[in-house]
Specification:
By secondary structure, this protein is mainly alpha-helical. Helices cover 68% and strands 0% of the residues. It starts with a helix and ends with a helix.
Amino acid sequence: MKYLALCVLVFTGCASNQSQPVRETSECMNYRGMMTAPMAPDAMERLKQKCEDSRK
């Protein structure tokens, strides 16, 4: 019984500390997929900007 109460408390505490999920757009998925690709810094910055703009 004590074990069950402890599990419920732990689960409830963990569930209440979760933040809202970030809205994942296709632009952001594309940006994250290209983060390790060798590409020009300005092209990477454009992908990042498209991601940020898509969240607004």
